[in-house]
Specification:
globular, 14% strand, binds glycine, four-stranded mixed beta sheet, 16 strands, alpha+beta, binds manganese (II) ion, three-stranded antiparallel beta sheet, 460 residues, 14 helices
Length: 460
């Protein structure tokens, strides 16, 4: 096993610990977790450490625990056993790992049996690890979104750090974005009528694999973009289909990127696909334009909703006054999700904490149609990374419901909508860093202009 090359790792980790200590000087124990098994113990899914652990330990170490105590880091981890070396090859020792991450001390895991300090922690979803956490700290540990007292204080301190990325995190997100952009270009170039979604997925993921990166989440590569997180790759691409690909790589240090592009199988958008594509793109561009420190992310969501509604009224698909339509959530029939989310060590960054990171203190999720799926409701700050991903979808279940439901049934011109049957789903998604004077889109080298996409598709 080799460590991934992460420049200035020790300094970065030390700075993160110092920053944590300023907000939370008490003891915290963070578990990395272990790989879940696939039916029997020796056949495991790939291991990926808990993101909170990874943020402070830098390396995805399995079965490890770190104590953070007023800027000091202690690593608890066993040396590789002979059995482990037999099956997995030479592994670094605890001391070597401790030196790499700049730990102040390192002990075997068994030392945790004598750990009696009242430390804060964050519960992991893996049942065996959760049991270890409760046993070690000798208390019932609440789920993160129900945390209280010192656990909640630790969570808020970590959120404050992870919300605004340091230079190392930004470099990692850029690294993941770079590979993801290449993957999307490869997907466009590989697309041809008669191929399957699985073949296009393979063309995209092979770029990520060839860079020795992995996918940050399950890829969506589908001609049924109306299924928002479609993980079926079985369809054969037909001449007039659109491919919606939501594929993002994870950097060696574990940071995510998240890109969606939609392109025509035959290399040219039809007139109806063109209309809707350009509408989604105009919402995408206007929302990115609005990203800046101080901007409310919910306002950006409403900007997307308003632009999409205006465009759908202009196309004769929605009928009525734009403000009234938006106020009644008519846009959500075609755009049922939020305009974006936080991006970082997780693709929906810190969503393991429920809405504690995504929603500013005192704010809670709406139960309104559409708005209820918004994952981020905060004022943006310099250093945050967010996605901007408006879309248009014809989701059969939502349309069926709207057909028979007041007030929606009269808001849609059903005959006009029928003209757009070759547009099942379009989403355009980029990764955007909030900078001190506005924003930087990190994913621009894979185009989203219609003509450039057509060119790329045709060049394949
Ligand atoms: N890339 C998947 C999502 O944003 O939900
Ligand atoms: Mn996304």
């Amino acid at each position: 096993m080799n460590f991934p090359e992460i420049s200035n790792l020790k300094t970065t980790l030390q700075q993160r610990r110092q920053k944590l200590a300023q907000q939370f000087p008490d003891k915290a124990l963070l578990w990395s977790g272990c790989a879940p098994s696939r039916n029997f113990p020796a056949n495991t899914f790939p291991f990926r450490a808990s993101s909170h652990f990874l943020y402070f330990a830098g390396l995805s170490l399995e079965n490890a625990v770190i104590e953070l105590d007023n800027g000091k880091l202690t690593l608890f981890m066993d040396n590789p056993s002979a059995e482990m070396i037999l099956w997995a090859g030479e592994q670094p020792t605890r001391q070597e790992i401790a030196a790499t991450i700049g730990a102040d001390a390192a002990y075997p895991l068994s030392e945790l049996e004598n750990y009696h300090a009242p430390a804060a922690t964050i519960a992991l979803p893996h049942p065996a690890i959760y049991q270890q956490q409760c046993q070690c700290l000798q208390r019932e540990i609440p789920q993160p979104w129900q945390a209280q007292g010192k656990d909640l204080a630790l969570i808020h301190a970590i959120i404050n750090l992870r919300l605004c990325h340091d230079n190392s995190a930004i470099a990692q997100i850029r690294q993941a974005a770079e590979v993801s952009m290449q993957a999307h270009k490869a997907g466009m170039e590989a697309t041809q009528p008669g191929k399957t979604e699985a073949e296009i997925r393979a063309a995209m993921e092979q770029v990520i694999m060839a860079h020795d990166q992995s996918c940050a989440y399950g890829s969506v590569v589908t001609v049924h973009g109306e299924v928002l997180h479609n993980h079926d790759y079985s369809h054969t691409l037909q001449e007039n289909d659109l491919v919606l690909a939501d594929v993002g790589a994870e950097s060696p240090g574990g940071f995510a990127s998240d890109i969606t592009r939609t392109w025509p199988v035959n290399g040219e958008f039809s007139p109806t696909q063109r209309e809707i594509y350009d509408l989604v793109l105009s919402a995408h561009d206007a929302c990115i334009e609005a990203v800046a420190p101080g901007a409310e992310f919910q306002d950006i969501h409403w900007k997307a909703a308003t632009i999409l509604t205006e465009g759908l009224v202009d196309l004769g698909i929605l009928q009525g006054n734009v403000s009234n339509l938006v106020a009644q959530d008519a846009h959500a029939i075609f755009f049922p999700h939020g305009v974006g989310h936080l991006l970082g060590l997780d693709v929906h960054d810190m969503e393991d904490l429920g809405d504690l990171a995504g929603y500013a203190p005192g704010r809670t999720r709406s139960n309104r149609f559409g708005l209820g799926n918004l994952r981020l409701d905060r004022a943006l700050q310099t250093g945050m990374a967010v996605t901007i991903e408006p879309g248009f979808y014809q989701v059969p279940a939502l349309l069926e419901r709207a057909k028979t439901q007041e007030p929606y049934q009269d808001m849609i011109n059903w005959n006009q909508l029928a003209q757009f049957s070759d547009v099942r789903g379009i989403r355009i998604e980029d990764d955007v860093m909030v900078t001190s004077d506005g924003a930087e889109t990190l994913t621009t080298s894979v185009p989203c202009q219609r003509e450039q996409i057509e060119q790329l598709c045709q060049s394949g």
